[in-house]
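Problem 12. The chain below contains 82 residues. Write out its predicted structure in token notation.
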Amino acid sequence: MKDYTFLGYSNGSRFCIEGIDVFSHQWQTLGECDIVLEPKTKRPYSFSIYKVESGNRTITFLAGKFSDDRWGFYAEKSDDMF
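Solution.
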């Protein structure tokens, strides 16, 4: 399991990553998944890895639904984060 940063929850109508509303774009699966921990319960979930292209920008993220039907979003931690 890699180290991921929790980006937030969404009800599925809107969620912005790096200024891009991911629900306004088509998600392209990278054919991979990884285990993330739900931030409040620390329960593990297997989420898929996606990319979204907007103009000349590409963002990559993990996303999936938790047991309460909310979407959760994560990004892989990098050395230049925070």
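Discussion. The chain has a mean pLDDT of 92. Students who got a different answer should revisit the alignment rule from Section 12.3.
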